[in-house]
Amino acid sequence: MSRLPLIQPDTATGKAADLLAGVQQALGVTPNMTKAMVNSPAVLEAYLGFSGALGGGALSAPTRERIALLVAEENGCDYCLSAHSYLGANIAKLDADEIGSARHGQSAEPKAAAVLTFATAVVRTKGGVEEADIKSARAAGLTAAEITEVIANVALNVFTNYLNKAVDTDIDWPVVRHHTH
Description:
Radius of gyration: 16 Å
Order of helices and strands: HHHHHHHHH
Low-confidence stretches: none
Structural class: mainly alpha
Strand content: under 5%
Largest sheet: none
Number of strands: 0
Number of helices: 9
Shape: globular
């Protein structure tokens, strides 16, 4: 049971109603995470802005989903792991092996593997990566823009992980549980 109210689109008012209507229109569903976020319309607006801006960046949707899977696994967020397992398979068209590998910072695709290696360093060090991590990412072909976006995608996913864990958001996706470390 979610620890904060999940604001329903049919009872929301004002800015909250407008934001939830936009989510419904864009996704065809209104995930419980967004219903929890809209307790503060500013939070949902910030999330949508950050996520939307990164969606227009240098990293592809499958790459962003891989980062989300990695960060959710690292942070033990079953809501996000469930959501991104579903989105990774059905929207980004990642196969089951890639979804499983991404959870552990790996990929059969060399560029995606380099992204995930760097993302793993970012999440595990809470941003305190070493010079060698940046050099390895560059040597693997990541541009400065891609490196910057990996950091941003990790941060965005840490936010959603922390929010969903703190609120204990009811999972409204096919449930996937993290592995205990």
